[in-house]
Amino acid sequence: MITPAYVRTMAAYNRWQNQNLYTSADALTDAARKAPRQAFFGSIHGTFNHLLWADQLWMERFAGPPRPAAVPIEQSPFLCADWDTLSRERFALDGAIIAWANGLDASWLEDNLTWYSSSAQRELTRPKALIVAHFFNHQTHHRGQVHAMLTQCGLRPGDTDLPLML
């Protein structure tokens, strides 16, 4: 389904786009980043927090500890209260995702992953390749929401098209 080269490309894309959107969001005040908007996780800050939370959970499942803060999905928009902490945690995690991707072996992708899903309220087992594809798709989905919110604030984030990544 997917290869380690795909995972490395998507890990690089994740970091590139987080840098793109966080740099744009830096231009906003804290109040503007936290302002309620028509988004599932309420605000720019909340959506970035949810992404950090979800990525931490998946990386713990993929690569082991450290375990992220044990909060339910409903609390994920409030994971990091301040922008500096959120930014620092995001970029540290992006480095960890890159390192994990760079060390990934093709055989790992051929196995299944079993985890307890608090959303489904049960244990799930799925192909690792499928879950890794979901991991990157989830990031892109919510970053698209952030991009739209930033645009509504009058900002112009950089390119998002994967073929334009250096």
| Class derived from helix and strand content | mainly alpha
What order do the SSEs take from the amino end to the carboxyl end, as H and E? HHHHHEEH
Helix content: 55-70%
> Helical region count?
6
Instruction: Tell me the span between the first and last alpha carbons.
Output: 25 Å
Strand order, sheet with most strands: 1-2
Uncertain regions spanning at least 5 consecutive residues: none
Radius of gyration: 16 Å
Based on DSSP secondary structure assignment, what is the total number of beta strands?
A: 2
Number of domains: 1
Mean pLDDT: 94
Largest sheet: 2 strands, antiparallel
Strand content: 5-15%
Overall form: globular
According to CATH, what is the topology?
Answer: Four Helix Bundle (Hemerythrin (Met), subunit A)
What's the CATH H-level superfamily name? Answer: dinb family like domain
**Proper CATH architecture:** Up-down Bundle
Please identify the top-level CATH class.
Answer: Mainly Alpha
